Amino acid sequence: MVKIFFLSPASGTQIKVVSELRYPYILINFMTKNSKYVPSAEVLFVDSGGFPSSFLYNSYNRSDLEYLHFVRKTKADLFALRDYPCEPQILQKYNVTAKDQIHRTLEHHIKLLELSERLEVRAKPIPVIQGWELEDYYYCIDLFREHGLITDYMAIGSLCRRNATKQIQQIIIKVRQELPSRTKLHAFGVKISALKNISVWRALHSCDSSAWDFWARFEKRPLNTFNKSLETCRKYLEKIERLRQFFESQKVLEVNSLV
After folding, report:
1. Which of 16, 112, 147, 205 is most solvent-facing, going by the fewest CB within 10 Å?
2. Containing domain of residue 122, as a range?
3. How many CB atoms within 10 Å of residue 57?
4. How does 234-258 read in b/e, with b if 16+ C-beta sit within 10 Å?
5. What's the pLDDT at 158?
6. What are the C-alpha distances in Å from 171 to residues 31, 82, 111, 144, 152?
7. pLDDT at position 106, please?
8. Residue 26 has pLDDT above 90, yes or no
9. Given the DSSP bridges, would you call strands 124-126 and 128-129 parallel, antiparallel or unpaired?
10. Largest CA distance in the chain
């Protein structure tokens, strides 16, 4: 069941909003220009910024050492191991395949784990399962299994830029089934529409979103961007909470039906 929903502030306004709300679960993207303004949080998750890096540079333009220093400086609780996303626009731009990206992800994961151990980074490293089609994710899981990278907390990448809700749901559910029951699963940038499925909700331990004030940012002549963003964020969190309450009530009903 989803236990943690991370807000992922990218703009200065979003950072002010999560600070105003004193929201406890924050995911921040290392590649975002506002990443140096990290709000206080009970649980801080640092994402490596795989998509913008891969799309712009076909790699990372900031070193692993710089990334890990940032993780330590912010006293992050979790950090994503550096991955190579498999969105079609990246594959087409650089003439690579999903398997190419998966192998690069594996190699960089191993490299970053070794460096983080030498630097004694205390934050928990989170391997990122990459792919685009379901078979790609299976391939990635098999590779990770061969190299001892199936850990007790992992994430699914290349989900947030899809318009096909059912495909997102299927990937999350099937990936969950391929992993040990001890493994907690995080979904990067998963849409609320995808969460409206009890099997998806049960498959995930955590997920995040930076799209909670999307319409507030693009509304014509907003009277006050901060207030509009704050209002939108509150409504977004209320939707998440309603989903939580609904699915928990379903669980209670199931238990009672067995008594």
Report:
1. 147
2. 4-258
3. 11
4. eebeeebeebbeebeeeeeeeeeee
5. 92
6. 26, 21, 27, 17, 19
7. 98
8. yes
9. unpaired
10. 58
The one-letter amino acid at 213: D
Residue 17 sits in a domain whose CATH number is: 3.20.20.105
- Candidate from 12-16, 89-93, 139-143, 165-169 with smallest mean pLDDT: 12-16
DSSP bridge pairs for 27: 45
- Determine the Cα–Cα distance for residues 172 and 178; give it in Å rounded to an integer: 10
Q: Please report the beta strands in the chain, taking only residues with DSSP state E, as ranges in sequence order.
A: 4-7, 25-29, 43-47, 78-80, 124-126, 128-129, 153-156, 184-187, 206-209
Tracing tokens 């076909």 back to the chain, one arrives at: 58
Question: How many structural domains is the chain composed of?
Answer: 1
Structure tokens at 204: 């995930």
Residues 175-199: b if buried by 16+ CB within 10 A, e if exposed: bbebbeeebbbbbbbbbeebbebee
Tell me the per-residue pLDDT of 11-23, one tens digit each, with 9 for 90 and over. Answer: 888 889 999 999 9
Residue type, 33: K
b/e per residue 114-147 (b: at least 16 CB within 10 A): eebeeeebebebbbbbbbbeeebbebbbebbeee
